[in-house]
Amino acid sequence: MALIFKGIAAAALLLAVSATPAGAETSVVDLGVLPGDVSSETSAINASGVVVGNSYADISTPHAVRWDRSGRALPLPGLGRTSFAYSVNDQGVVVGYSEGADGRARAVRWDATGALRELVVPGATTSYARDVNSAGFVAGTAVIDEVSKAVRWDPFGKATVLALPAGTTSAAVFEINDRGEVAGNAFGDDSYAVRWTFSGQPVSFGAGTNARGFNSAGTLVGRKGATAARWDRSGETVLEGDTATDVNDHGQVVGIAAGHAVSWCPSRDLGLGGALLVNNRGDAAGFADSSAVKWHQGKTSVLPLPPGATASSVTGMNDRGAVSGTTFDANGDSRAVLWR
User: Under a CB-based contact definition with an 8 Å cutoff, are residues 329 and 318 in contact?
Assistant: First the structure.
């Protein structure tokens, strides 16, 4: 186990508004809400700037949406009641879940045209698709015999239930890389960061670990106890900080340490706040106070707000530096936005 030290010192739109404050290089696009809805949020953005998220008729009734690069909304159909989009790949395939008339959540996939397909898991009472890779493999979670288990679907929709690590009783996943490896966490008496190989075997990184980020090489980052950590094929590296939140394909890690946004490999204190995302050119995005922030080449930029908004958060960032997020007004009502 290595130890690295560093110095700490989200049919059509109702509204699409761009605002570029004087002197700012980044503009904000209010992606609006679907007709009849009252709020919206983003979940993810792909390489070309397509954003997915959800529009709400009320707090308990989401409708999945895909916004194209120009900000036009495509409502994604559901199984009868609600629908929810989690992720989108670079081919425009969206995954999430939808509730049918029985109120049970079922994992679903929408193709690039918006056509819906249910992702069946034999024996499951509920299921959720969380991420999709460039080849169309999907990762998610299904409840089978009252146990939450990790699942991977192939591009044809065939489900493989992934084994639980020894000593654990449930699991949840958050990402799949282009190797078809799945990242998540398993739970028993403690939490366990886990990478599932393409063959479906779990690789556990021990009790007290929790994974939050994953890259194309299969490196996970997160937390071990009260300390940030990284796990790759050579083992575990403890990072000086509170938690690691993301890792890019070059191995650069970002996170939070003592109330500061930080980067490891290379080590850098980015200032007050927290870094949540990092892209492959080294840009980071996160928060400072109640504002969405982006760091580019060491420069901190508070991302601009559309009229009426008072706070913001980030949900995704692509390698061009475009950021998906959600803004909030003084009443707490949310709005899906894109910064570019």
Answer: no
CATH T-level topology, domain 232-325:
Thrombin, subunit H (2.40.10)
Q: Determine the residue type at 153.
A: W
Using a CB cutoff of 8 Å and minimum separation of 24, what contacts does 123-127 make? 127/97, 127/151
Q: Residue 25: is it exposed, middle or buried by C-beta count within 10 angstroms (0-12/13-18/19+)? A: exposed
Say how many residues make up the chain. Answer: 340
Identify whether 307 is preceded by a cis peptide bond (ω within 30 of 0): no
Sheet arrangement for strand 274-278: 274-278, 284-288, 291-296, 299-302
Per-residue pLDDT tens digits for 94-152: 999 999 999 999 999 999 999 999 999 999 999 999 999 999 999 999 999 999 999 99
CA-only gyration radius of the chain, Å:
19
Enter the pTM of the model: 0.92
| Cβ pair 164, 149 in contact under 8 A | yes
